[in-house]
Amino acid sequence: MDQSWGRPANEPGAGWAVVDVETSGFRPGQARVVSIAALALGDDGNVEHSLYSLLNPGVDPGPTHVHGLTAEMLAGQPRFGDIVGDLVELLRGRTLVAHNVGFDYSFLAAEAELVGAELPVDTVMCTVELTRRLDLGTDNLRLETLAAHWGITQMKPHDALDDAMVLAQILKPVLFRARERRVWLPVHPVTRRRWPNGAVTHDELRPFKAVASRLPCPYLNPGRYVEGRPLVQGMRVALSAEVIRTHEELVERIVHAGLSYTDNIDLETSLIICNDPAPEHGKGYQANELGVPLVRDDEFMRHLGSVVGGTGIEEFADATLAGDQFALF
């Protein structure tokens, strides 16, 4: 799979690895994993094989009232290094999936580093973000709430195996709904670095907005968007709070189309995605003050099917250089 952010739900993938860990605390590299469950799923969401183990962390197991695991229960269990080989084989070639994937993946990366192993994971997907995009109408996006929504029985919340099995059961109808609604999956790349001076950290899995705002755009900014005309690659696009789709999904689509995402509203901004035609505050208000066009998110999504090719920065630089050389004679 390539290293782009997000992909259409109807585009085939190489399968999923649904993972859940219970930990002795909240800081990867300091707290330890006390139990792990990983389920290998085909691209259709059907379980192919699994791994589950309690783990002896070698430290106090932490919040026993949450995960139910005591030091006595974990004393004779395997260490992470004893199961990492099986985990590596299960993960290989699959997208790692978790409910708040930054937490689970960061802990696994830290544990792998401690035993000198490397996780063969290139992409991850967070089911919190995916279900948020589907607008299911639930009160919240907690795992137990989603399980109830899909009619799935959760026997032991905060048990790694039960949570992973519930998430795997949820994933199948969620993927079907995503394909049905043509929603993009939040499949995001990760870089395998070493902990703590670089295995994957929470910072690396930070929201794509923070990453995208610093990505160089390969196209020149063609200026302001004009209503009735197509989008042009290189246009600088900002987001307001007044949208229906998640910011992460919109940013994925902006970057994928060859547009440039910006956190700032200024005279160089081509348009802002905003569903309120007359916002009274925030970025939408700033855009109106500067005359930056406001475009609804549904209208913006429709325009993505007919984006016009832009002028490449390298192409422009080469043409400028050639012109300068010609002027010397």
From TrEMBL:
<dbReference type="InterPro" id="IPR012337">
    <property type="entry name" value="RNaseH-like_sf"/>
</dbReference>
<dbReference type="InterPro" id="IPR036397">
    <property type="entry name" value="RNaseH_sf"/>
</dbReference>
<keyword id="KW-0378">Hydrolase</keyword>
<dbReference type="InterPro" id="IPR006054">
    <property type="entry name" value="DnaQ"/>
</dbReference>
<keyword id="KW-0540">Nuclease</keyword>
<feature type="domain" description="Exonuclease">
    <location>
        <begin position="15"/>
        <end position="180"/>
    </location>
</feature>
<dbReference type="Pfam" id="PF00929">
    <property type="entry name" value="RNase_T"/>
</dbReference>
<keyword id="KW-0269">Exonuclease</keyword>
<protein>
    <submittedName>
        <fullName>DEDDh family exonuclease</fullName>
    </submittedName>
</protein>
<dbReference type="InterPro" id="IPR036420">
    <property type="entry name" value="BRCT_dom_sf"/>
</dbReference>
<dbReference type="InterPro" id="IPR013520">
    <property type="entry name" value="Ribonucl_H"/>
</dbReference>
<dbReference type="GO" id="GO:0004527">
    <property type="term" value="F:exonuclease activity"/>
</dbReference>
